[in-house]
Design goal:
The protein has 398 residues and is α/β, with parallel strands linked by helices. The protein has 2 domains: 2-147, Nucleotidyltransferase, domain 5; 198-380, ATPase, nucleotide binding domain (Nucleotidyltransferase, domain 5). The chain is 38% helix and 20% strand. It has helices spanning 60-72, 107-115, 124-137, 157-160, 166-172, 181-194, 248-257, 261-270, 273-277, 285-293, 297-321, 331-336, 338-345, 357-360, 385-397; strands spanning 2-8, 13-19, 24-32, 40-45, 51-54, 85-92, 103-104, 143-147, 203-209, 213-219, 222-226, 326-330, 367-368, 377-380. An 8-stranded mixed beta sheet has the order 5-4-3-2-1-6-8-7, sandwiched between helices. The structure holds adenosine monophosphate. Adenosine monophosphate binds at residues 210-211, 239, 284-286, 289, 331-333, 336-337.
Length: 398
């Protein structure tokens, strides 16, 4: 079975075609500038050269048609006919309280995704557009929605309720949902398998440290707590997002700078995080690392604060689960930045965490990076959200 995995943004569309026989990626690519002048498709067949097509894509529908044309193209394609695609798996950011797992799309599912537009105004409309464009382009083929929020739905009330008047939960479903759920599910599951841990009771912390960043605590793969909240703004310091702050700061800055709450939220989402703390150096950790090495005090402060915040969450989650069996690092920073992994783990000696420098000198592969006598196993565990989406799609449509 071949599964097409789609991740639609408002003006972009990322895809992978995965052969589930051996879980290999047959081709992947990206449509950019959908609905804007200069739309481009970049298609890369496995082991082949990148192939670019510039053609107007007024909507996702034309984008998906171009993806299908590229997949069957006689020079750059990887399949003979679109009929070889058995199903399409879609990343959908918000499933609200409707879905705690992936689901085959029907009219009710589309209505629920629409009902959550308010909660994810940038993502859910684009995700739904992608689903409807696939339905139109490949009629009769099953589409599966894989929700970023599904993992967090197993949190108990004590973890998901905010200490706000209860009426806001009742009226608007204001609660903590958590995001990066597909990655947390995948990495906690792989950690249990790779680490030979008890599948039902293993207490695992996943540090998903990418441009967006979140930590999760799970027991036997079921989420106990996770650091993102109603939106992906809560929790860790990220590339451009502030993570946790005193909410009164919003009012203070709005009043003093004479800006609106919307403008302030834009600052918290796009101009804060390590970008803001480093006084504008970059949101990319490679640039921050380089500046810190050259002695830039702001860059150093940003890295120190970043590591401290992650460590504080790990400590809190150790308490929430009454212990930890394993910690896994994943995503761009987690998979590539050995110094950051070491800096975070340096706070965790009180839990019996010991990092082995030689084992930690690695990037992008499944690896135990703690010493043999470390009380908690620490892993480097690359995430693969596309594969996780494809596996769910296969399971639900087989
Ligand atoms: P992701 O969102 O998972 O794609 O992660 C992207 C982020 O990973 C980038 O913004 C970088 O900050 C970070 N990153 C990627 N490679 C490295 C590296 N070699 N060292 C440090 N950070 C890295």
């Amino acid at each position: 079975m071949k599964i097409l995995v789609m991740n639609c943004g408002s003006s972009s569309l990322k895809y992978q075609l995965i052969d589930m026989k051996d879980e290999s990626v047959l081709a992947k690519g990206l449509c950019e500038r959908i609905g804007i002048e200069g739309s481009t498709l970049t298609h890369t067949p496995a082991g082949g050269e990148k192939y670019k097509v510039q053609k107007p894509m007024p909507s996702h529908k034309e984008g998906i048609q171009m993806v299908m044309d590229a997949l069957v193209d006689k020079d750059h394609g990887v399949i003979q006919s679109v009929d070889e695609i058995s199903a399409i798996g879609h990343r959908v950011v918000h499933g609200g309280t409707y879905y705690s797992e992936s689901v085959v799309v029907d009219e009710n599912v589309k209505k629920a995704i629409r009902d959550c537009f308010d909660l994810a105004p940038l993502h859910n409309p684009a995700n739904l557009m992608g689903i409807e464009a696939c339905e139109a382009a490949m009629p009769g083929k099953p589409n599966v929605a894989v929700f970023d929020t599904a993992f967090g739905m197993s949190m108990e009330e004590k973890a998901y309720l905010y200490a706000l008047p209860y009426e806001y939960y009742e009226k608007y479903k204001i609660r903590r949902y958590g995001f990066h759920g597909t990655s947390h599910t995948f990495v906690s599951g792989e950690t249990i398998k790779f680490g030979g841990l008890d599948p039902k009771n293993a207490k695992v912390i996943v540090c998903h440290l990418g441009n967006g960043a979140s930590v999760s605590a799970s027991i036997g793969g079921k989420c106990v707590d996770t650091s993102m909240g109603l939106t992906p703004l809560e929790g860790l310091i990220m590339g451009t997002r502030s993570g946790d702050i005193d909410p009164a700061i919003v009012q203070f800055i709005c009043n003093h700078e004479k800006i609106s709450v919307d403008e302030m939220l834009n600052i918290l989402n796009k101009k804060s995080g390590v970008l803001g703390m480093s006084n504008g150096i970059s949101s990319d950790f490679r640039d921050i690392d380089e500046a810190a090495e050259k002695g830039d005090a702001h860059a150093r402060a940003a890295l120190d604060a970043y590591a401290l915040r992650v460590a504080k969450y790990v400590g809190a989650y150790a308490a929430a689960m009454n212990g930890i069996d394993a910690i896994s690092f994943t995503a761009g920073v987690g998979e590539n930045d050995k110094n950051m992994r070491k800096k975070i783990c340096a706070y965790l000696g009180f839990l019996g965490v010991k990092i082995d420098d030689e084992r930690n000198n690695v990037r992008g592969e499944n690896r135990l990076i703690s010493t043999d006598d470390s009380k908690v196993k620490v892993f480097l565990m690359p995430t693969n959200e596309e594969l996780a989406i494809a596996r769910d799609t296969l399971r639900l449509t087989q």
